[in-house]
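subagent[fold] <- orchestrator: predict structure for attached chain, return tokens only, no commentary.
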Amino acid sequence: MHVTIAIPTYKTRGSIFKLLDSLKKQSYKKFSILFVYKEWEGWKETAAKIKEYKGLDIDFARQDNGFFEEALNTIFRKADGDIVLHTDDDAFASRDWVKDHVALHSRDRNAGIATGVVDESRLSDGSELPPFTSFLYHQKWRMNKHTLIDKPIDDRFKDYGMYIGVSGLVVDTGRRHNMIKTFKQHGVNMSWKHGALHGFKFPGYAKSALRNEQGAALEVINRGFYPIRFNAGRVFHPVQESLSRGTSPLLVSTELIVGDVLLSYYMSLFYKIDLDVLRLRTRIDDFVTRLATQNRNKGYSIGYELASKAIRQKWKPKRVRETLIETLKNVG
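subagent[fold] -> orchestrator:
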């Protein structure tokens, strides 16, 4: 079974070479690597160093336009392995990472997309996070349990550990996410069968493709598979600022929070969203955020206003993105 390891990269840190070192040591050898890149100053030098890695089958796909969603669309179009493995350029893999994902997909033919273990216990300098700081850094307060007010939007999700609610947002049931169906997918350690996502295309409504994993999981379900997590295939992801993280444990940008809320717009392309529940969810989350952290931005209210307007007026994805970018400019 051949595997394509897909890695989007832009303005990469030196950590990309730690990732390549970990891929050279994989116990499962039948894989190729696809870097999807955007040009930036210094990319040619970085690419030259990447090409120096002997024993790795490496290819490149240039992304001329767009944001992270367009990078993912390139992967869905070009990655041709029986299984596609996706990770970030600031992570690195355990020795059996590829082997574990191949084993999972081999024994479970209906698992379309799967997330393995993501170890985020350390900072980029190698120091271990204290437990409370770890809790804040992983921003679990952005994923409050709303099972009482936000029921599954689709009967197929009733037995999921994390599901999409009638608000169009994710709801975490608190159940262990090991070998159960769940929308709790994590792009830094995610694999899918070729037929589960090949040719899929995000509509281009977001800027940083936050919550893209849930959109991909829904596509997998609509193709007759299901999304799961499993307790193997470990990836190490040092904690540092990134597209999906804030600048500190107690601060998350307006863009990240608005991105969370805009998942409701994406889900409105498939389902009827309960805007009253969406409004209640965002108000509760805003309250919890202000109580638990130093965040004082208006991300939840901005996100609700943008999402609800786009849903009511049936905006096209391009208009949502343009309005989002302009809104973020105005709030700084």
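orchestrator: received. Logging for downstream: DSSP finds twelve helices and twelve strands in the chain. Residues 3-130+170-236 form a domain with the Spore Coat Polysaccharide Biosynthesis Protein SpsA; Chain A fold (CATH 3.90.550.10).
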